[in-house]
Structure formats: structure tokens, C-alpha cells
Amino acid sequence: MFPTDVFKRYRVRDGKEFRLADFNPADTGGLQVGKEEAKAQLAEGVERMAKLQDKLYAEHQWALLIILQGMDTSGKDGVVEHVMSGVNPLGCVAHSFKAPTEHELDHDYLWRCHVALPRRGHIGIFNRSYYEEVLVVRVHPEVLAKEGIPPRLVGEGIWKQRFKDMVAFEDYLSRIGIVPVKFFLNVSK
Predict the structure, then answer these.
(1) 143 class by beta-carbon count within 10 Å (0-12 exposed, 13-18 middle, 19+ buried)
(2) Sheet order of strands, 63-70 included
(3) Which residue would you say has higher pLDDT here, 177 or 26?
């Protein structure tokens, strides 16, 4: 059985003191397992997840939103493929957020994530998410310009406002029964 307490050291409760540089991408969490044992633990976890998904679906009250963030080639697609391999595909939908379409740009920046939220009893996976709006958009101002926001509303304060919006959005999700669980895949170059 995989020791679930290993995750506690990676859980960020207060982002004010968090620095990604403080985490070694090569850290194994103290697990010293070979390839075969790792495969066995993955299979066990996948089987457990399938049983939990059945309960989630049967209760039809909650939804799970898994948000995967990471640099390009950090393994987000691999997580979806391997870790989620045992869940019923009828109760799980993955969304990959690429550059916004013209239709998406005609709405607020959270809109495309909002319409992709999982239904009650289902699991939703976001391969990237609204966090791109304070990462990629900050580096590529041409994307922000395409959003059509009135110029007087765009200034340095926009990033703090978006962070507040995202926190409020996640609070909202929690209040309506959608549990957001966020993962940042930290791999070395």
C-alpha cells in the first residue's frame, strides 16, 4: 500500500512563504522503490481510484476537479494517461487549455474554465488552467490585448486582481461541491 502521508510535505497551505526553488525535482519523498514495485503501487492506486469514482458517481453530490500545471513536457499528459487509466471514461472529462479561441476571448478569462467544470458525480481534469492567465499572458501581453478589456482597466494591478479572482473562484467551487485539487509537476531540465 502506498503511504499517503508522504503527500503532506508537498501540500501548500499558505502560498505566501512558498518558493518552488525550495523543492528538489529529484525528490522521491523518501520512497525507495524499484520500477516493478512502482508499477504495482500505481496499479493499486488506480484500482482504489476506480472504486472511489464509483462512490462519487453514486452519491451524485460532489465533483472533483484535478488541475495539472507544469512546464511543457513536465508529464501532464502522462498523468492523465497512466494515473487516470482505471477510471470510467464516462465519468471523467479532461480539458487541455491551449491558446484561447476568438469565441473564448469574447468572454472573461475564467469563462472557458467555468464551462468545462465537471458535473456532480464526475471528475474533471484541467491540463493547464486559468493560472495561465497570470503566467503566459503576463509574458505575452499580446494575449491580454486580444481579450478586449477596456484599456483603462488594464494596468499593473490587473495581476493582483486576477489572483484574487482565482482564489474567489476556487472558494466558489468549494461552496458548490466541486473540490479543486491542484498539482504542479516540478521536473528538472
Answers:
(1) middle
(2) 92-96, 123-127, 63-70, 178-185
(3) 177
